Amino acid sequence: MPAEALTELPVDGGTIHAEHAGTPGGEAVLLLHAGVADRRVWDDVIGPLAAAGHHVIRYDMRGYGRSAPATAPHSLVADALLVLDAAGVGSAHFVGLSQGAATSVDTAIAHPDRVRSLTLVAPGLSGHEWPRLPGFAERMAAAEAGDTHGLALAIAHLWAPLSFEKGEKQCDAAARVILDQAEHFMSDEQEIDEPSAIPRLKDVGVPTLIVLGDKDVDAITEIGSILEQGIPGARTETLANADHMLPLRTPDRLVELLLDHL
């Protein structure tokens, strides 16, 4: 079931591109992408969820995919709620990848009436102190040299290593969706930092599923443990043969977990 354009949502001198699939009036699911990707990371998930009777909504964060770059500081939580409002949805099941997972948790804490459940895939977490990740020096050198493609390629090697098992010339859709964000990686971030979620995880009151990939970076696994320990009743599933771009690696298994959880 293909996604259809929902809206080009005006925001601060630009637009947020949003799409939906399924039957409006069905239980709503909001898909939030990672900070290295765009809405296409959900290409293999949106159709099966819609076919199961859900009203599935996805969008590009500002500066990603078809959404215009940010022109002013903005809140990722507020943007997510704007998308729900544009869809006429009061509350939704939030399914977030990486940064999208962090935004989902932030929304559940700040606006609990808008979130029906959480599925946190390869999650980020507001307030988490990140270690220096592998390949840091290479990424910094590319950024300082203004090497847009080199920076994007280094980021893809970090977050989508399974894409390069046959060499860089054979990279797949997971790597391409990262490489397509190259211009964004060189721009100044305009997202407003949310308050640390860590001391408030106990306030999350909705069913929470954490989904990890066994080929992801260790820092993500650590965040998964923090979330599982901090959110009452949270549980974790770890999927084999999946790196950070998990929805494009093991979509069938992810959909099974989602249909059981939602």
Automatic annotation (TrEMBL):
InterPro entries assigned: AB_hydrolase_1, AB_hydrolase_fold
GO function terms (MF aspect): catalytic activity
Domain AB hydrolase-1 per the UniProt entry, residue ranges: 28-246
A Pfam family of this chain: Abhydrolase_1
Gene3D superfamilies in the record: alpha/beta hydrolase
Top-level taxonomic group: Bacteria
PANTHER family from the UniProt entry: ALPHA_BETA-HYDROLASES SUPERFAMILY PROTEIN (PTHR43689:SF8), HYDROLASE (PTHR43689)
Protein name: 3-oxoadipate enol-lactonase
Upper classification of the organism: Bacteria, Bacillati, Actinomycetota, Actinomycetes, Micromonosporales
